[in-house]
Amino acid sequence: MRLLAALCLFACVTLGMSSPALAKPSQQRGYMLRDTTSLPPPPAGKARLVVARDMRIMEDLKPEFVYIDRKPLGFLQQRTVVTAIVTPGWHKVWLGRSAPAYVWMEFVPDGRYLLRLRETMSGETWRGDLVREGIEGYGRFALNKGMQISVMDSRGKDALTRHLGKPTNQTQAQDSTAREAAMASAVLPIVIKDAWYLPLPSDAAPGEFQNNPGTLTLDEKSLRYTRADSTVVEIPRDKLTSVYFGSERGNAENPWIKVGYKEADLETGATFADANLQSATDNYNRLFAELSKSLPAPSSH
């Protein structure tokens, strides 16, 4: 990145403002790209959603189509974000181009939410999912990753609206049923009967966590991990200090959730993951959504 652009981005992080609109046409008509390192808060009573595609696994991957419920949000190139103001309530955020990737989320007034698109390629097979992430420090994240905002124009919105009519996309009736199921799954306690755990830091041998799974339970009071009816670790919810995406471990694609907490007035941490790949992303997002309720509101974005 050129020095002038870097200085501009640094100033935006420091002052908490968006950078000047350095818009340039994209290779595909329908959206523009802008440099930015911060986003204004949502209007009173609304929420802000940011969806980020920060990985680069191939040079020629096409933009993904991003929707919330039946509303087009935009085109998501690699190293870009799309953002939108959202009405509070339960909504489905999903991709409409490649293999299905979606998440049901509850938005609250004045809330700010970040989703990251995880991507992998096996031969010519693409796999992606959407995982929750903490939005505080968004400016540093955007600067380090060289992120840009993808801004959809009227032609792009028309194209994404037409795509909604494809037979492979969910109908409103199907979404209504799925919304009820998502709301039911968010009710406490959340119990993952086959889960992995690693303390932070950990001196365990690589892959050792896979040989000795346990049960992870989140209720109103604590997050606890047990093996053979013995409590390995219990984290009171009022001791939580941070919740983040903890990447992956070993050869497994299961997303890990990284939890920071206070123990005897010292800062420590732990990571957990659902051992079942088929349910791992859903359970990660359920844990993230609930644990985030125990954290103070972020002060910077």
Note down, in words, how this protein is organized.
This protein is of the alpha+beta class. It has two domains: about 5-175, no CATH class; about 190-290, Roll (PH-domain like). It contains five helices and 18 strands. The chain has helices at about 5-15, 140-145, 155-165, 170-185, 275-290, and strands at about 25, 30-35, 45-55, 65-70, 70-75, 80-85, 90-95, 100-105, 110-120, 125-135, 150, 190-200, 215-220, 220-225, 230-235, 240-245, 255-265, 265-275. It has a seven-stranded mixed beta sheet with strand order 1-2-11-6-3-9-10. Strands 15-14-13-12-18-17-16 form a seven-stranded antiparallel beta sheet, covered by helices on one side. Strands 5-4-7-8 form a four-stranded antiparallel beta sheet. A hairpin with a 2-residue loop joins strand 14 and strand 15. The longest helix is centred in the last third of the chain and has 16 residues, at about 275-290. It starts with a helix and ends in a 9-residue tail after the last helix. The model is unreliable at about 1-25 (pLDDT under 50).
| Mean pLDDT over all positions | 85
What is the count of DSSP helices, taking H or I runs of 4+ residues? 5
Distance between the amino and carboxyl termini: 22 Å
Helix content: 10-25%
Assembly state (oligomeric): single chain
Shape: globular
User: What is the C-alpha radius of gyration, as a whole number of Å?
Assistant: 20 Å
The biggest sheet amounts to: 7 strands, mixed
Strand order of the largest sheet: 1-2-11-6-3-9-10
Number of domains: 2
- Would you list the SSEs in sequence order as H and E? HEEEEEEEEEEHEHHEEEEEEEH
Poorly predicted regions: 1-25
Structural class: alpha+beta
Residue fraction in strands: 35-45%
Number of strands: 18
